[in-house]
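Quick one: structure tokens for this chain, please?
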Amino acid sequence: MLSEKEIKGDKIEKNLEINQDQLILNWKFKDVNKKLTYDIKKCIGCSLCKLVCPVDAIELGPIPEIAQNILDDSNPKLFIDHDKCCYCMLCVIVCPNDAFHDNIEPEGHISLDEFPSIGKFYKIDSENCIEDQENEICQRCIEVRERNNIAEYYKIARKCPTNCFSIDSPIEGEVIIKKNMLHKCSPENCKACVNICPVESFYIPESAVDVLKYGKIACNEKECFYCGACENSCPDDLIIVKRKNIQIKDPKKSEPYPWIEGWVKNIKEVLRKALIEGKEQVEIPSIEDHIKKISEAKIEEVPQLSEEDKLILTDLNFKIQSLLKSSKIRYWIKDKKVDSILKELKKKIQN
């Protein structure tokens, strides 16, 4: 597939290659070649890339169906419009699992070191780190430190020989479960949030005490890095991932590049969905609860007249009716003689 755009007599050439587990987007202008590779199997469906994309070139794929194993993981969790894509490589910067790769030629012509980035998704206790040359986990740890790869980090954290490696996150936030909507949740049939989480933060409570406390599903936020994959995977929209802050790192090459402000603004788009204040789970009343509340509402009693008041009003009504039967009064009403009518009415009432 080839699309071209004319720019001042020169051509920008774009094409898309589709391999079994990869989408490869190619861009060429004059002597500069850009290649953006999307690794389908590594993608965790978090949508951070979609949020930062400045041209809305990324859309979510069938993430709930993939997370529920209705579709296998050979299906892409994202759809990328390569005609829209501007090859800015912001997706490469924010991806927590190394699902996007950049390749720019000639080498050094454009360097991502000139652009802001986000912090790492891990931390290391350097005093206890041994970097054992003979240990497979140590060597794997050294290999994957440069590019964020949360799935590998989780495995390393579990098997680190000195427990010096742990999951960390440049994103601060919280996971909110819509407690009153959990009647829709079917963990025995779904497990989408459990399946998709790369650090196993989501789990299904088993003991009666935990079920009573948390409900059908729960999230242990100790290692959660607030990527949002669980929110995207839930077929019943029961999960909200609220991101509150993100650690943005200055370019490694410290010069006043004109694009820094724009990049920082786009990276902060991951915070756009900060919707609900407070840590408590959201209480969203169902229609049934609303109907029950209305039906149980106390009906306000209408004040009733006493027998004495009823007699007074009955007498007053009789006097007014007898007055209206007078032909004289009817003529006054016709001629709008208000003062005469009021004078006669007052005399009638006082008798």
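Confidence is low (pLDDT under 50) at residues 1-9, 275-279.
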